[in-house]
């Protein structure tokens, strides 16, 4: 099992304006220090909308659109990463189970779980 984590919101491009911040890692229950060359990311407990992404590349956008529509029709809002010292971090998490999803390219057909933070 591994995770892909991406902060949500506007202005997340890297210095080249076409790069996004994204981390790949594994979930741990507790850890004191990160091993050399690695860093720790704490994703706070929150409500998440989730769906399973299954199929070819078009399934990725369809799944994200489905979550957006569900939130909108249910009166919920998706979380947005707010910059500044009082940052309210919101994350998009993809959870890959290697029994369902290939690790190496080509990744399609996809079969993973998508989570979008809710406000």
Features:
alpha+beta, 5-stranded antiparallel β-sheet, single chain, 1 helix, 119 residues, globular
3D architecture notes:
With 119 residues, this protein is α+β, with helices and mostly antiparallel strands. Helices cover 13% and strands 26% of the residues. The chain is built from one helix and five strands. A five-stranded antiparallel beta sheet has the order 2-1-4-5-3, covered by helices on one side. The chain is globular and about 45 Å long.
In short:
With 119 residues, the chain is α+β, with helices and mostly antiparallel strands.
| Low-pLDDT residue intervals, each spanning 5 or more residues | none
What's the SSE pattern? EEEHEE
CA-to-CA gap between the ends?
A: 26 Å
Strand order of the biggest β-sheet: 2-1-4-5-3
Shape: globular
Task: Please give the share of residues in helix.
Answer: 10-25%
Main beta-sheet annotation: 5 strands, antiparallel
Q: Topology of this protein?
A:
Layout: E1 2-7, E2 23-25, E3 48-55, H1 58-73, E4 91-96, E5 110-117
């Amino acid at each position: 099992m591994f995770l892909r984590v991406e902060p949500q919101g506007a202005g997340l491009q890297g210095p080249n304006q076409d790069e996004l911040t994204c981390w790949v890692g594994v979930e741990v229950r507790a850890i004191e220090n990160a091993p050399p060359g690695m860093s720790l990311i704490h994703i706070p407990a929150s409500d998440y909308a989730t769906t399973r992404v299954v199929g070819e590349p078009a399934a990725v956008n369809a799944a994200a659109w489905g979550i957006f529509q569900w939130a909108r029709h249910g009166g919920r809002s998706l979380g947005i990463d707010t910059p500044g010292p009082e940052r309210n971090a919101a994350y998009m998490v993809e959870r890959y189970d290697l029994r369902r999803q290939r690790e190496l390219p080509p990744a399609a057909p996809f079969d993973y779980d998508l989570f979008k933070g809710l406000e």
